[in-house]
Amino acid sequence: MKKIALLGHGVVGSGVMEILERNSALLERQAGEQVEAKYILDRRDFSALPYGDRFTTSFDAIREDPEVAVVVEALGGVEPAYGWARASLLAGKSFVTSNKELVAAKGDELLALAAEKGVHFLFEASVGGGIPVLQPLRESLTANHITGIAGILNGTTNFILTRMFQEGMAFADALALAQELGYAEQDPTADVGGFDACRKICILASIAFGSRFDPEKVPTRGITAISARDVACAARWGGAIKLIGRAGRAPDGRVDLEVAPMLVPNDCLLAGVGGVYNAVQVTGDMVGNTLFYGPGAGKLPTASAVVGDVVTALTQPANSRPVPWGPEKPELLRPQEESPARALLRVAGMDRQDLTAFFPDCQLLEPAEEGEEALVTAPSTQGELDAAQSAAEAAGARVLSRITVLEEMGARA
Amino acid sequence: MKKIALLGHGVVGSGVMEILERNSALLERQAGEQVEAKYILDRRDFSALPYGDRFTTSFDAIREDPEVAVVVEALGGVEPAYGWARASLLAGKSFVTSNKELVAAKGDELLALAAEKGVHFLFEASVGGGIPVLQPLRESLTANHITGIAGILNGTTNFILTRMFQEGMAFADALALAQELGYAEQDPTADVGGFDACRKICILASIAFGSRFDPEKVPTRGITAISARDVACAARWGGAIKLIGRAGRAPDGRVDLEVAPMLVPNDCLLAGVGGVYNAVQVTGDMVGNTLFYGPGAGKLPTASAVVGDVVTALTQPANSRPVPWGPEKPELLRPQEESPARALLRVAGMDRQDLTAFFPDCQLLEPAEEGEEALVTAPSTQGELDAAQSAAEAAGARVLSRITVLEEMGARA
């Protein structure tokens, strides 16, 4: 029998226990022998559960038990997860986590340590919940240089934007509904501010481009400023506003990385991803565009990815593939002002003729709304757009909103 | 240096050579050493190519060369591929193929032989071209019982249906255009008849449900009878007609399997998959709905999947996972008449009142077209629908077309 230990019996942790129990025969077949959680570390009292006798508050008991082959962490937050990850790997145990904060902050170090100790450090559930995307990116697409990634990486914000789009709801009302339904936290900052999506695109970019990217350095804008009118404008143009994490390799090898609400054309599958679902588009130099879609969060979907990693850790040798990423190379990140951009602008206080002087070759949306104009600029860079916007504002324009267009990253029929 | 041999230098084979050359440094990093094709078996004269000296017409030379670790087959057709696959595996070489005919016909046997010899038999490229779907299904989703799979598995027919949908083209015109653009063969039977999609859904079902499914026994309908009017009706109802390969596990454990043009509701991502792209929706009991999308054919996308398998064969131990499927169990296939179905019918020669007598609780599409009615039946079984249709026809109705609705296979926000 293969023994694992589970750190944290919250939403994801209890989902892992549920899968180990409900699908035990399947897992036994896949892993070659029974998979059982010997310890569950949680401070709370779960003694009434059928497996209540397996709870512990001692990480040392887990670390020191040679029977435990894999430690599964579902706590969230960098500490104490980081210390326990190090200690587990140092003790020669594989470590599986759903914790994107940990992976975005310490992934390079923990991957190197796992490689040194000849064990696994796996984290499929940290990006896209139940969606298989990290393993396909690392293995199935291994013949490709990845040229771009764009993803809807946060279910809470996608739920809010979907309601705003489908029902014309205001942001505050959609957020309140998300909170009511349990899709948003009482403090929704990490989600609606884009920080959660930022950690996830950093993990994806790290795998794709081989170095750590620091979430703190990635331009990150959330959806709090998106209005029902922005959403209506997007629909009129033929697209939807989605919170997108985007990473792209520039011709000179540097990487553009950002999180922002973007205007996604309707002919891109990402525009049709609704509700709490996530999707990640991955473009490779050989394969072209691929897309991975599924539930981005939730107890059993996330636990499905965690348990998939557990079986990998139990059955596959470590170190058969190269370490996916190394330390940060700050020069790899291209300053945002150099990255290409085209944007939807809503502007008040300036007539069409003057606007086209500041934004030449722009596409004006017809018909104009009362008191404002909406336009999509010609392809340019973020820096040039900043300059044009400043110049227009100096001449009296009020830019009500500016939303970057998500450009196609590869050929598509 | 790792040596491989390539059987067939057609579209896919030449794509494999192109990737080995263009991405050689990347592949060396991924595989741990250089990956080189030592032999290319093809009868035709390619001596003018830069690697023209590596061509051979002798399979024996390949089989007998101990330096060759992996044999890659990109010929198509069951013979001679099957004989060469057996001989390669018996010689202790891993075998990688893009050949869905071979895998659908002989997969169980070749998988067992590979397991016995401790080598790999891999075929990611045989389903969905460049889309990573077989490996995620086997590995990332391993914690799930698969409950359903539905896929757009043939790019040619999807191109034709997309043109019929977007431009109102007739089937014959769209087929002619596909032939002109090189997306359809001069003899398009395997594509438009649904036989290609059938092999692919059989491979997916085999992995999902653990036994071989024989394409000859799977109800298969192509798209030749689809008219512009069917397509318009589908749009009016809020969906698109797609050629779908579908496999689902019934509550009693048996499997429904079919290939047919189906009415896909617009809120399903499959409805938005256009042109020559493919997509596979996979539903698991723990994860819910996932979807994998990408180029379903083409030289470099298909070769991307082949080379991904080559790297797996070179770096991963064989037999670390259980053999994905065994021999056919004919009793596992549920007869089509028992499978649940709801359908879009176009009917002439009968008025609404009489129609609703034969198809109670159906939804009549408004407004009716000149001389015909369109309706979507209530949920039922294929057998009950057959009976109702026969009864209506006996009473004078002419059923112009009947297209099954693709039902959601899991929860979706």
Q: What would you say this structure looks like, in words?
A:
The structure is a homodimer of 413-residue chains. In chain A, the strands form three sheets. The first copy, chain A, has a nine-stranded mixed beta sheet with strand order 11-10-7-8-9-17-13-15-14, sandwiched between helices. Chain A is elongated and about 75 Å long. The longest helix of chain A is centred in the N-terminal third of the chain and has 18 residues, at 100-117. Chain A has helices at residues 11-22, 24-31, 59-63, 81-90, 100-117, 134-140, 155-167, 171-180, 189-192, 195-209, 228-237, 299-315, 352-358, 382-394, and strands at 2-7, 35-41, 55-56, 68-73, 94-97, 121-122, 146-152, 239-249, 255-265, 277-284, 288-295, 340-341, 343-348, 363-364, 373-376, 380-381, 398-405. The first copy, chain A, has 413 residues and is of the alpha/beta class. The interface between A and B is large, with 62 and 62 residues. Strand 11 (288-295) of chain A pairs antiparallel with strand 11 (288-295) of chain B.
Number of strands of chain A: 17
Shape of chain A: elongated
Over all CA atoms, what is the radius of gyration of chain A?
23 Å
Q: Estimate percent helicity of chain A.
A: 25-40%
Question: Termini separation of chain A (Å)?
Answer: 50 Å
Class from helix and strand fractions of chain A:
alpha/beta
Q: What would you call the quaternary organization? A: homodimer
- Give me the side-by-side strand order of the main sheet of chain A: 11-10-7-8-9-17-13-15-14
How much of the residues of chain A is beta strand, in percent? 15-25%
Show the largest interface. Answer: A-B, 62 and 62 residues
